[in-house]
Amino acid sequence: MIPIPKGFAFGAVCAGFKNSQKLDLGAVVCEKDASAAGVFTKNAFPAAPVLVAQEALEKSGTARAVCINSGQANAATGERGMVDCKLSMEMMGGALGVSEESILPCSTGVIGVPMDMGKWRDAAPKLAESVGSCSAMDFTRAIMTTDAFPKLAWARVTGLPGNGDGGPVHVLGIAKGAGMICPNMATMLSVVMTDAEVEPELLREILKESVDISFNRIVVDGDTSTNDTVFLLASGAAGARVERENKAVLAEAVAEVCQALAYMIAEDGEGATKVIRISVTGAKDTDDAEKVARTIAKSPLVKTAVYGKDPNWGRILCAVGYSGATFNPDHVSITMGNIPLFRNGQPVEGQAKLLLAPHMRRQDVEIGVDLGAGNGVYEVLASDLGHEYIRINAEYTS
Amino acid sequence: MIPIPKGFAFGAVCAGFKNSQKLDLGAVVCEKDASAAGVFTKNAFPAAPVLVAQEALEKSGTARAVCINSGQANAATGERGMVDCKLSMEMMGGALGVSEESILPCSTGVIGVPMDMGKWRDAAPKLAESVGSCSAMDFTRAIMTTDAFPKLAWARVTGLPGNGDGGPVHVLGIAKGAGMICPNMATMLSVVMTDAEVEPELLREILKESVDISFNRIVVDGDTSTNDTVFLLASGAAGARVERENKAVLAEAVAEVCQALAYMIAEDGEGATKVIRISVTGAKDTDDAEKVARTIAKSPLVKTAVYGKDPNWGRILCAVGYSGATFNPDHVSITMGNIPLFRNGQPVEGQAKLLLAPHMRRQDVEIGVDLGAGNGVYEVLASDLGHEYIRINAEYTS
């Protein structure tokens, strides 16, 4: 059974935002104000809830609850979207008996359409009532949209100095997302909870570092949602305190949880059948390594080749060639599944493609590129590109 | 019937590079050395024929012939590829009775596989023999790969100062390509011919300017081939001379021909059903306008929405939001088919989507974005993204 960090409770109801009988409104509530940190989309058109949550966190660095609705994104809704978002949090604050500013909102769903405030008004008290009687899985289902499966991951931390009952510390992460896809209903949202005691500033560092090596390292279609949000909440209920000196112990657990969730999102990329692990080494610097890794990860030709189980290293070479990174073509090498295909600017003779056949049938396909230009390294996870992606995104009607 | 610029003759044969009975080797031959200019791929891994042609043009600025094979790209073939390319031109030079350095080579086809020199040896004399007895259409077919239709365009120029029989000047362009797709067999190649008399330096200017507003303005999947090449040859046989003063007259005709060919390539984009015309205005500068236009043109979400006939302006807004251009979100406006959907940061109320239904059924779909940040403008043509693209590129085996 899923270990729940102390101090947190879940609620979930069907508010009707999805026009179905499915759960589409969920809340994580903390018994007292939790330290809270957030990382948000860099899209120039952030959705209303993103702006509201950012403002709330800047003010206090703490939160009592996270409230997420699926079905309506409240993005590109102009001034009205801001008013609606604040009103919905006012309703939730009243129902939960907490200040509206202590609730962090997220929305995911159809863009450019105002939220149905009548449904909010009806659902708010029901959601408050459900808190405590729902499981983490109920909450996870309430925030799912095009997700094919619920995404949860957890870790356990021991050896932190206890200042209370000194029990073990838990980290639980819940995410939804099937691609950095907007405004289709596949925004990436995640709430990570821990019962360790952590100061907001330290919590922000831990979250930022974890997101940089997890959620920021996956590429489904390269589109960046207007609603992407990741929260980290620390209740302190485990009676174990994290200071700068022992930060690493918790940071590792949070990063591990975020990486597990990020892998699940790539795995669940719309229409994806495989996860492509792209490792670039020997770049001039990290920026160049990232450039090459992301160019390969976004190349429709590489993604369709992997979908077709074809070890088409020529397409990888080509993407490296237009990535804009600095290197000497004669020093570039490419491997798939660690089998050399192109070495120092020359194709490798032999039966590499036959050897690769079994690797190409796996769910995880590995691409390695060495630029022979320095010590820069970078790794990303990418989804392949198949018929299902087209079906989902061409047939989806806004 | 297609007007052929004076001084040019065509040849085409089946050499067997395509492993079929189809034409796969063609030549354009000029009665004497023609002024010649070329524009080549910026990919860091240019194919052997690209390097050989660049070298030849730098030396002389003239050419007697262009020789193109389809079926084998001679790309990513290392040193051996250079040797093979020069050897094949030696064979052609011998067969045509011209110096090998006066022939400009192009190859398109499978990457990473050495060319079959035996087939070259057999085909060279047959190709030379066919010159004069073949039509421009035969040559066009010989360089086609995944193209769904042959691509030719022409223009007529009058009013140039004659220094001979003073007849009208002709411009004929031939292209192949179904996407900036590599290493699949869809490299973009084009040969543009004119019978005007033009100095090489002036010819280079005219070609560069024309390519910048035509072939460089189309986006199918954003991948850039290792073999992309455009040549412009001027025979001077019409007896009309182009000087810097009257350069514009010919430049307009060449640009017109290149734009017509570029449209056909976008129209024929692998699996494409529509051509998306993306116009960005009001950008801080041209670079920003280009950034936004290309981000929209490459967005799989925008491309699949257009394929699905869905006027999903939210996906356009989202792409603008992560394009990296500088603007104030409250000043951004979006139109489709000139119908306002989003104005000054606010969605436009009303029945825009109903009004747009007929527009979305057209072959040409128009997207307009105004950033309200300056005078920068840019326009690109893009293909939509459909099931056929996945089929072609997933089922193609290297």
From TrEMBL, chains A, B:
InterPro entries, alphabetized: Arg_biosynth_ArgJ (IPR002813), ArgJ-like_dom_sf (IPR016117), ArgJ_beta_C (IPR042195)
Pathway entry: Amino-acid biosynthesis; L-arginine biosynthesis; L-ornithine and N-acetyl-L-glutamate from L-glutamate and N(2)-acetyl-L-ornithine (cyclic): step 1/1; Amino-acid biosynthesis; L-arginine biosynthesis; N(2)-acetyl-L-ornithine from L-glutamate: step 1/4
Subcellular location: Cytoplasm
Main location: cytoplasm
Residues at the site labelled Involved in the stabilization of negative charge on the oxyanion by the formation of the oxyanion hole: 108-109
Keyword Amino-acid biosynthesis recorded: yes
GO molecular function: L-glutamate N-acetyltransferase activity, acting on acetyl-L-ornithine as donor
A Pfam family of this chain: ArgJ
SUPFAM superfamilies the UniProt entry points to: DmpA/ArgJ-like
Keywords associated with the record: Acyltransferase, Amino-acid biosynthesis, Arginine biosynthesis, Autocatalytic cleavage, Cytoplasm, Multifunctional enzyme, Transferase
Nucleotide-binding as UniProt keyword: no
Role: Catalyzes two activities which are involved in the cyclic version of arginine biosynthesis: the synthesis of N-acetylglutamate from glutamate and acetyl-CoA as the acetyl donor, and of ornithine by transacetylation between N(2)-acetylornithine and glutamate.
Full protein name: Arginine biosynthesis bifunctional protein ArgJ
Gene: argJ
